[in-house]
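In this section we walk through a basic example: taking a raw amino acid sequence and producing a predicted 3D structure, encoded as C-alpha cells. The instruction is simple. Fold the sequence below.
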Amino acid sequence: MSDDATAKQNARAPIPGDQSPDQVSTEPAPHSVGAAPHRNLKADLVVVGAGSGGLSAAAGAAMLGLKVVLFEKGEMGGDCLNSGCVPSKALISAAKYAASAREGVDYGIVTGTPVADWQKVQAHIRSAIETIAPVDSQERFEGLGVTVIREHAKFSDPQTINSPSATVKARRIVIATGSRAFIPPVPGLATVNYLTNETIFDIDKLPLHLIILGGGPIGMEMAQAFRRLGSEVTVVEMGRVLASSDEDHAKVAADALRDEGVTLLEGYEAASVSESDGTIVLEAEGPDGKKIVRGSHLLVAAGRQPVLDGLDLEVGDVEYDKRGIKVSQKLRSISNKRVWALGDVAGMGQFTHLAGWHASVLVRRAFFKQGSRADSLPLPAVTYTSPEVAQVGLTEAAAREQFGDKVETSVFAFDENDRAIAEGKTKGECKLVLHKGKLVGASIVGEGAGDIIQLVGYAMSNGMKLTSLTNFISPYPTRTEVVKRAASAHFSGAVFGRPARLLVSLLQRIA
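The resulting C-alpha cell sequence is shown next.
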C-alpha cells in the first residue's frame, strides 16, 4: 500500500456510490435537546485525529470501500499543516532569502541590507498553508465517503466513540491525536506570555530578542530563521543542542548558527522566568554560573508530549503512559485489540513521515492481513537548519553502544565535492556507519542533506549492500555524489591496496 503522500494523491477523486455509514436515530441525546438528532452510527473504522496519520488511515480505508468516521475537534491537517512542518519551512524559506542577500557580497553581488516585512512573511506562510489545505480538507474526505465530525471525541466503552452529536460503534478505532508542546515546570513560566509552535507564527511583529527554551530541531530551526530575519536570538539548552543527531554533525550546525549571531547556551538549565513591562527575564544556571537573559519574546521548544487528555482512555480499556498509548510494533493497543495508535501518540517518534508510515502499517495489517511492523524500516530525520542535519538508522554513538568496537565509519567531506565548492557551501560531510561491513546508519550535515540522505535510506530499506552505493553513475556535479564517495572510501584499501596491486601486476603479465 502507499505511504502518506501517495495515499493522499491517489485519494483525490471521490469513490462512486454512497459510502456514508450514517444510521440516524430519531431519539435526541439528553444533552442536545432542541438540537439536531443525535446520530448512532456503525463503522468499520473510527479515526480520532485528522493529522497525517489519521488522514492517511481514513483515506486508505475509504478507498477500499470501508465505512469510515473521522473525528477532529481542531483544524483539518493537524499540527503539521497548521503549526508545524508547513509554516516552519515556509518561514525558513523566507529567512533564506534574507541570508542570501547578506551573503551575496561573497559572490560579487552587492545589495542593500535586507529588511524583513513581517506581515508579508506571514502572508507567505499563510499562502503555503492555504495551498496545501484542500488536500486535507473536510470536503475532500467527505468526497471520499468519509463521515467527518468536527467535534471532540472520547471513549464511552471499549468499542464505542462518542461526541456531542454522534455515537459510533466501530470494528476498529484509530487514535491519531498527535502531540503538543511540552511545557517544563520552570518557576514563573506559567505567569508569562510565552509562545509555542502553535502561536509563534501569529505574533503581530518580529521579535526584537527571541529567547528560545530548548535546542532541539524546532528550537534550532526557529533560532536561525528569526536571526536571519533580523531578531536577536538566544537559545537556552540544558544539554547539547541537537542531542539526538550525530555529535560531530550537530556541532557543525551549531557553529554555523553562532557564526550568524545566534547565542547558544549549552549546558544551561532555566531556573526561573519572569516578565516586567513587556520584557521577558530568564535566569539560567550552567557551567559558567548564573546567566540572566532578557528578551521581548519567549518560545518554549523543550520537547513534545502526546495528546491524550479528554479521550477517556480508561473507559476504553486503553493503557497509556507519558510517552503515549502502549502499543506493540504492530501498532495495536496491548490492552484493547480493537484500538490502534498512529503517529506521535504511539510513542515511537514525532515525525509526520513516521505517522504516514504508521498508517501504511495499519492498512497492510488490518485490511490485507500482511505482516508489516512499525519498526520494519529505518527512520530518517532532518533538521532544516543551514546546513541541514540528516540522519537515518543508527548514529555512530548509538551503533557503538549497541555493537561496541566492531563499528566502522566511512566519511567524505563536502569541501571535496565540486558542486559544493562551486556554490561556496562546503560545510559538512557524509558519514556512513557500518557494523561488520553492513550499513546500519548514516548522518549527513550540509546543504541539501535531507534530500541526499534518501539515497542511503533507500539502500537500507531494501536490504542493499554497501557496494550498491558505489555501483551507479552519479551525474556531475551533484552533492549526492558524497554518498558514493563515502561508500567508495570504505573499499579503497581493498581496491587500491598492496594485494590488489600485486594482482593487477600479475594480470598485466598474462595479458
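Looking at the output, two observations stand out. The domain at 4-76+137-180+305-368 is CATH 3.50.50.60 (FAD/NAD(P)-binding domain). The longest helix spans residues 85-103. In the next section we compare this with other chains.
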